[in-house]
Amino acid sequence: MTKTKHRVWKYGDKVNTDVIFPGKYTYTISGDPAALARHALEDLDPAFASNVGIGDVIVAGRNWGNGSSREQAVTCLLAAGVHAVIAASFARIYYRNAINSGLLVIECPQIVEAVATGDEIEIDLAATQLYASGRSYGFPQLPGQVLEILDAGGIIPWLRANALADKQ
Amino acid sequence: MSSITGPSGEAQSEAHWAPMTLTEKLLARASKRESVKPGEIVVVEPDVVLSHDNSAAIWEIFQQLPHGKIRRPDRLAITLDHAAPPPTAKHAQNHAQIRQLVREQGISKFYEIGRGICHQVLCEEGVIGPGFTLLGADSHSPHCGWLGAFGAGIGRSEVAALWATGELWLRVPETMRIVLTGRLKPGVTTKDLTIHMIGQLSSDGATYLAVEFAGDGISNLSPDARAVLTNMMAEMGAKNACMAPDAITWDWLESSLARSRPQDADERLATFRESALYPDADAACAVEHHVELSAIEPMVSCPHTVDNVQPLSSVAHTRVDVGFIGTCTNGRLEDIASAADIVRGKRLRRRLLVIPASSMVLRDAIEAGHIAALLDAGATIGTPGCGPCMGNHMGVLAPGEVCISSANRNFRGRMGQRDAEIYLANPAVVAASCVAGYLAHPADLAGGEQA
After folding, report:
1. Residue A51 falls within a domain, yes or no?
2. Which domain CATH number covers A93?
3. Coil, helix or strand for A136?
4. Residue B406 domain-assigned?
5. B56: which of B30, B97, B108, B111 fits an S-S bond (Cβ 3.0–4.6 Å)?
6. B411 vs A28, A67, A74: nearest CB
7. Considering only CB atoms, which chain B residues are within 8 Å of A157?
8. pLDDT band at A143 (very low <50, low <70, confident <90, very high)
């Protein structure tokens, strides 16, 4: 697999789900990608939603996604075109939600201090390496089943494919 | 002592596995295994799958699957609590879709608007109890651990997958044991204890971990106070939080079941006595903390994170505009009683919104005279449910307002307005602050606040 190039949006530690996708929308916006994208990071960075580009990545510090279990905190980023979130660490439910919705999540504490908003980074998933400003940063290999779910685009497409395969 | 029996029924020799924590025993039961150890991936069949106002969105996801029917509708529990009664036509339509789903799929554990908050209602109704396992589309799902159950939060897609298959994989977590000794001082609650611990260990202090409360200090804590402990561990990143059932747990279960399901209360209690699990005394844990309860002071989470913690004394006299007492964290009878005791005979200088966690709590609070005391002081009473906790329902904040709240989160925008500030404290501090007009401990009011 080749490397992919991405523009960085950089945020700090402990970014919670309320500032990623406000709770006040949680029972009125769920499946509409345009509406989801419009409110992405609304209470963290008002400039994000109108300036994010397809394939951009978020690089953040510790405990990205702490707080609510709302899945829109993941799907609003996918709808906005975000390719991956790279963080020093993730909150537990956010990490599961990301994989289950097909959003690539990479734990790599070393790269966090090395990049800023607007920087370019490269991801080599197969080699489990990130590249920024001429340096490389390794990250742990994701378990096989997790990669399978990510490749399928999330747990629902993965489960659908498996259920249909079982029927045949 | 290890009292697990194998799937075939015969007692297993204890030499086969290491002593287990309560969480390990709960996950062994849920995965039909003799034993589990941290790091293992197990497939569990939860006894309870919780969802609420998000059930229509989950149904939409479920329909992308070829399964058609929910595999175990008897295991689903759905409450309408997060925006109840519906504040807009769109919320009302969401509720209507959920009622249709409940009818079509034959879901019997359905709790209508006004019954209360999922975590409280499922405990009161005996849906969850000792030894049981719950997975919920709600981040405060660890709550039920105060009954000796396993509860963990998951996302909507995973709940849809659970509806389809009835099972889900989980990694067996390492355990953080928190040993409590002694007794809390008057005016200090388990809310202060959890805020203190989150301040010390940070919002990711227990990420991926099971938190297990132990020690003889637990026997000095009421059921209402215990539920705060397991509920708030969500704010420390825990996967689940639990404690072993004791005589106080069983008494609470017996009286709650007699009220909520008189038709089969004895049978249900017998089921729980059979399913109850207890940790092995010599079980290993990854990390252990000791807390002497009498050393805890009133604590406050300051804007805009739960782990931005100060002793109340160092932020006292901060201006407040409005108070909120309620939520799955601190909306129970003991919480409302402590607020009523403070405002009785006084006039509030600030608005105070009180939302009981359940209809049972509201009824008890009326009978005990707490609601009358709160109303006489000028408080507002809301329908049992989550209220403005996550900015969905009545009681949201205006720009620039400062709220003192008994809830669990104070993130920017949480109560519907990014330019508002939220402080978290115990319910007595919320009430005292609404009497004073600024952050105050009940003891600060002595004598001088008969406005």
Report:
1. yes
2. 3.20.19.10
3. strand
4. yes
5. B97
6. A67
7. 64
8. confident
Radius of gyration of chain B from Cα atoms? 21
Same domain, B247 and B322: no
pTM, entire model: 0.94
Predicted confidence at residue B449, as pLDDT, reads 43
Select from A21, A30, A36, A69 the residue whose CB has the most chain B CBs within 10 Å, as the one to mutate to test that interface: A69
What sign for the dihedral angle of Cα B30, B31, B32, B36?
negative
CB contact under 8 A, A100 and B157: yes
Which uninterrupted H or E stretch holds B426? Answer: none
ipTM reported for the complex, 2 dp: 0.93
Nearest residue of chain B to residue A164 (CA atoms)? B66
- Number of structural domains found in chain A: 1
Determine the residue among A44, A45, A71, A148 to mutate to test chain B binding: the one whose Cβ has the most chain B Cβ atoms within 10 Å.
A71
Beta strands in B358-401 (DSSP E): 380-381
Cα A134 → chain centroid: 23
Q: Which of B97, B89, B103 is nearest to B54 (CA)?
A: B97
Q: CB–CB of B117/B19 below 8 Å?
A: no
Is residue B195 situated within a structural domain?
yes
Residues B174 and B195 in one domain: yes
Nearest residue in A to B165, CA atom? A159
Q: How far is A110 from chain B (nearest CA, A)?
A: 18
Cβ partners under 8 Å of residue B72, min gap 6? B49, B166
